[in-house]
Fold this protein.
Amino acid sequence: MPSTGARPAGSEDEAAAAQDVRRMFDSIAPRYDLLNHLLSANIDKLWWRRTAQRFYSVVANPDAAILDICCGTGDMTMALLKHRARDARPILAADFSHGMLSRAAQKFARPGQPAAIALEADALHLPLRSDSLDLIVTAFGFRNLANYEAGLREFHRVLKPGGQLGILEFSEPGGLVGKLYAVYFRRILPAIGRTICGQDGPYSYLPASVERFPSPNELLALLHAADYTDCAWQPYTFGIAGLYTATRGEVG
């Protein structure tokens, strides 16, 4: 059975898990961008660009209502904004970590670019009307939700019928690539993260959270169970990451 949600070490229930995740990301926010780009050799930028391009038809529509949930420091939002007209409806970029969101807001304030609005909000309890969004995208944040099924239901609630969902997440590749990556991901990455940010927990949590996360087939099953249609997974970079796509049905 797939994991029901994120569980940092010591978290006894969903409420505790959510609080622990929030505190963890607040604590690493000052060095988050540096570590992400260093540990991924900047491949993460390619993944954001590919995801933004996948939803170009929606993002390029100036009237489309778009949410980047679990936006972190805003890099996925920035990739989306490159396809957005300056007079377009602002993109909503939401996260429940104040430390991460404050850094995202600084990026959004750059002059001469389309608008994005930083919104401090919980992905499981969005302060948005039902049937109000054309697109929800989340990049490497869905894995940290305390309840995956509840998150998919909440996204379904706020999407319009026919609205699209994109979940960019890590996965565990198979074969020789998977074995080599596992050594890096479980041993080398936590050591580098610990050295740079001075904490052991966050970068030990990362490989543990990916290991607990549902496999592509399991997450696709969760999407189908939550009444999404056209559910698919596109692997990126030998399956180290991948983009899940789905559509809210026209009825229901």
Notes: The first helix runs from residue 14 to 28. Residues 115 and 208 are 36 Å apart (CA to CA). The two ends are 27 Å apart (CA to CA).
